[in-house]
Amino acid sequence: MTIPAGVFVHERGLCDSDTVGEGTRIWAHAHVMKGAVVGRGCNIGEGSFVETGAVLGDFCTVKNGVSIWDRVVCEDYVFLGPDASLTNDFLPRAAFKKDPETEFRPTRIREGASIGANATIVCGVTIGRHAMIGAGTVVTRDVPDFALAIGCPARCIGWVGRYGTRLDFDGEGRARCDRTGDVYRLDDGKVTLEKMGTPPTRG
Fold first, then answer.
1. Cα–Cα nearest to 61, from 77, 37, 39, 73
2. Bond preceding residue 153 cis, omega within 30 of 0
3. Among 18, 38, 45, 183, which one has the highest count of C-beta atoms within 10 angstroms of its own C-beta?
C-alpha cells in the first residue's frame, strides 16, 4: 500500500487508491479501493468503505459505517451521517451477475448536501445542492436544492440554507439566513441562492 502524499491513513485503515487528495484522513477499518476518487480534505470515518468507481469531492465528511459504491458521486462539502446507506443496484439478486455499466443506477449527491444518520438513498436519484435529509429517511426520488426532506418515503417539509438552518420566506418569497447573511428566493416551488454572504469556512 502506497499512501498518496499528504494523506493520513490510520494503521488499521486501507488506502489502495492513488487518487486521494491532500489533507484527507482515512480512519481505522476504513477502506478506499483502487479506482475510487477522493478529493482534498475529506474525513472518512471508522468502518467506512469507498468502492472502485465511487467519487468523493473536496472536503466531504463520511461518518462511521458508511459504504459508498460504484456510480455514487458526492460533490464538494457533502456530509454522510453515521451508517447512512447508499445503493447502486435497483434489482439486486445474488443468483445473477450484473453488468455495472448497464444495470447499476448512478446516484449523485450535490454540493453541500447532508444525509442524516441511518438514512437510505435508493439508487438512481439526485440529492440537490445543500439539501438536508433527516435521520432514518428513505429517499426514492430526486430531492431539490435546499430542501429539508424526512420520512419513508421522503417528503419535503421545508427549506434550509447553506448553513443548515430553516428558511422563513416572506410574502415576496425571500428569506435571509442570520448565520451567513445569504439571501434566498422561493419561486414556483424552487429555492435559489440570490446573494451569498459568508463563504464556506473549510478549504
1. 77
2. yes
3. 38
**pLDDT for res 201:** 86
With a CB cutoff of 8 Å and minimum separation 6, the contacts of 36 are 17, 19, 50, 51, 52, 53, 54, 55, 56, 68
Q: Is residue 107 part of a domain?
A: yes
Q: Which amino acid is at 47?
A: G
- Contacts with 159 (C-beta within 8 Å, 6 or more apart), sequence order: 146, 147, 148, 166, 167, 169, 175, 184, 186, 191
**Domain total for the chain?**
1
Tell me if 183 is assigned to some domain: no
pLDDT tens string 38-94: 999 999 999 999 999 999 999 999 999 999 999 999 999 999 999 999 999 999 999
- What contacts 48, CB < 8 A, 6 or more positions away? 27, 30, 31, 62, 63, 64, 65, 66, 67, 68
Residue 105 contacts residue 122 (beta carbons within 8 Å)? no
